[in-house]
Task: structure prediction
Amino acid sequence: MLIAHISDTHIALDTPDSETRISDFERTIAHINALDPQPDVIFHTGDLVQNGRLDEYTHAVEILAEARAPVYVIPGNKDDRVNLRSAFVGASYLDRKSPFITYAIDDFPVRLIALDTLDPGNNKGDFCADRASELTALLSTNHTKPTAVFAHHPPCKINVGPEPWNFVTDEAMQRLSEPLQQSENVIAVFCGHVHRPDFGEIDGTPVTVIPSIATSLRWGEYPEAIKNCPIYFLHSYDPATGFSTASQVVDHQ
Ligand SMILES: [Fe+2]
Result:
């Protein structure tokens, strides 16, 4: 199974770099569309837009509509649940029964569990008792498939950036990480938010953090030749060896 992982596109319509953000997103989807083989899914781990506005989501939806592979999204701290749901009106995976955008996809060799760590008005993540209950319930419905978990905020210590911890409280982070520790099926956690690459772990389960697709918001050191090139990750699953991750650089086309 092949997962194209993108994050932090931060589509905005009124910033000096608005066109760059839109172009970075468009170029990334075009690059993924040219992959052979195609990924089974494209997963966006949040901060699709900058201000949670419907007109921003309209652009994001238009760009993602060009994707050949199925697309799944979760909210980041800049997203707005109501407007995101309104914009992705045809996305049946966005369960309307919960106030949170939490879901599982069981259509692939790896089960995909998407978590909602949005705390409106706060850049840090939250994971309340209700979300923890949803996660526990999701994990209890399948005990056999290897499972990959997607969350905007990394639920572990991060080694890069200004903040090693990216949740409002230790307790909130533990409400997310403890069910993952207790599950024998969770083999990988994929995140965004930090706008630079990093790797962490939850009790031995690897946590992979992807840089922002928006190159104007990306942090870290990159060779001059790729400073304006978005970077996304391809997570490849092999039943014998688990996940391996390769960076993809979207070159100038
Ligand atoms: Fe972001």
Notes: The CA atoms of residues 58 and 87 lie 6 Å apart. The domain at 2-249 is CATH 3.60.21.10 (Purple Acid Phosphatase; chain A, domain 2).
